[in-house]
């Protein structure tokens, strides 16, 4: 009997995913640019698109975002629905192919102020700023994001109040609680209050663990799975300590070479296969059943 059929109460997609044992590795959405728009009130189910903004401003931001494949997220501090009068923030976070991280921040009080976001996407931004920790808590999009995300946002905010924001949908409702560290471009999933503090603390110390790692956003799913397998075998490492140097595909199988950068000068050859699961209900709000693609590491060896 499926978890959906066995359930007698409300359906929660993250509970069903845990019961099925859905792996989180290889599930991070691809991308390297994020636009953050602070909105302290309630969030529409469709996030930024649902805000009551001037159409010309919204169109300008969307077109600029689409040109660089940026993801637009609404953000707010945990537990702070009102403000003492300080203007809300916007930000452009960028992860470059070189591994450089850049951020540009501003504030807005009127719709017209958000037009600066489009200009910021063409600007280099500031390097060496601390990363931003984003916790999906978008309950209007999926209940699991609120039920599991908000306790994580609270725990992380208590530990790192200046780094942590709640955010709208980041993808993968069934992996809630989801945390995105940007512009590092690292997704974590299946977190709770305790494990989130451990994972983020290790991340900030330059030690990314395979456990709870969904993947690096500059890699494609089989490559994400391969890097996670290397971290599980060789131990935690920094964001730039390993690079995918070769990828070849034969049908549903990949051969991926992962190379360590100094001082981790090691080579690993990883074999990954993909397969589709039986149809399941994958989100709380979507009743339709869908198959998911799983990326399974079948072998890993030092080259």
What's the alpha carbon Rg, rounded to whole Å? 19 Å
Average per-residue pLDDT, rounded, comes to: 93
Tell me about the biggest sheet? 10 strands, mixed
Task: Categorize the overall geometry.
Answer: globular
Helix fraction, binned, reads 10-25%
What structural class results from the helix and strand content?
A: alpha+beta
CATH architecture of the largest domain: 3-Layer(aba) Sandwich
What CATH calls the topology of the largest domain is Glutaredoxin
Give the DSSP E fraction (strand runs of 2 or more residues). 25-35%
The CATH superfamily of the largest domain is: Glutaredoxin
Number of helices, counting only DSSP H or I runs of 4 residues or more:
7
User: What is the count of structural domains?
Assistant: 2
CA-CA gap between termini: 43 Å
Strand order of the largest sheet: 5-4-3-1-2-7-6-8-9-10
- Provide the low-confidence segments as ranges: none
What is the number of beta strands? 16
Order of helices and strands: HHEHEEEHEEHEEEHEHEEEEEE
Q: What's the CATH class label of the largest domain?
A: Alpha Beta
Q: Any overview of this molecule?
A:
This protein is an alpha+beta fold and 303 residues long. The chain has two domains: 3-29 and 131-302, 3-Layer(aba) Sandwich (Glutaredoxin), CATH 3.40.30.10; 33-127, 2-Layer Sandwich (Dihydrodipicolinate Reductase, domain 2), CATH 3.30.360. 24% of the residues lie in helices and 29% in strands. The strands form three sheets. A ten-stranded mixed β-sheet has the order 5-4-3-1-2-7-6-8-9-10. The chain has a four-stranded antiparallel β-sheet with strand order 11-12-13-16, covered by helices on one side. The protein has a two-stranded antiparallel ribbon with strand order 14-15. Strand 1 (33-38), helix 3 and strand 2 form a beta-alpha-beta unit. The longest helix is centred in the middle third of the chain and has 17 residues, at 143-159. The radius of gyration is 19 Å and the shape is globular.
């Amino acid at each position: 009997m499926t978890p959906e059929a066995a359930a007698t109460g409300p359906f929660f997609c993250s509970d069903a995913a845990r019961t099925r044992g859905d792996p989180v590795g290889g599930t991070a959405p691809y991308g390297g640019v994020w636009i953050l728009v602070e909105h302290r009130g309630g969030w529409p189910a469709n996030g930024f698109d649902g805000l009551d903004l001037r159409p010309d401003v919204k169109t300008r931001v969307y077109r600029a975002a689409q040109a660089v494949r940026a993801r637009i997220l609404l953000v707010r501090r945990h537990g702070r629905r009102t403000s003492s009068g300080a203007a809300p923030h916007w930000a452009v976070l960028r992860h470059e192919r070189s591994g450089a991280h850049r951020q540009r921040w501003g504030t807005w009080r009127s719709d017209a102020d958000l037009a600066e976001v489009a200009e910021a996407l063409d600007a280099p931004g500031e390097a060496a700023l601390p990363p931003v920790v984003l916790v999906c808590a978008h309950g209007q999009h999926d209940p699991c994001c609120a039920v599991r995300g908000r306790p994580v946002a609270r725990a992380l905010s208590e530990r790192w109040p200046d780094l942590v924001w709640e955010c709208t949908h980041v993808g993968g409702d069934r992996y809630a609680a989801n945390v995105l560290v940007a512009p590092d471009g690292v997704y974590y999933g299946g977190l709770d209050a305790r494990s989130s503090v451990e994972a983020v603390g290790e991340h900030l110390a330059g030690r990314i663990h395979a456990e709870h790692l969904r993947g690096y956003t500059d890699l494609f799913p089989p490559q994400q799975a391969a890097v996670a397998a290397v971290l599980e075998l060789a131990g935690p490492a920094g964001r730039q300590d390993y690079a995918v140097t070769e990828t070849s595909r034969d049908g549903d199988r990949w051969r991926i070479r992962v190379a360590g950068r100094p001082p981790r000068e090691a080579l690993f050859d990883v074999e990954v296969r993909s397969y589709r699961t039986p149809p399941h209900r994958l989100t709380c709000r979507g009743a339709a059943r869908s198959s998911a693609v799983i990326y399974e590491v079948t072998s890993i060896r030092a080259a």
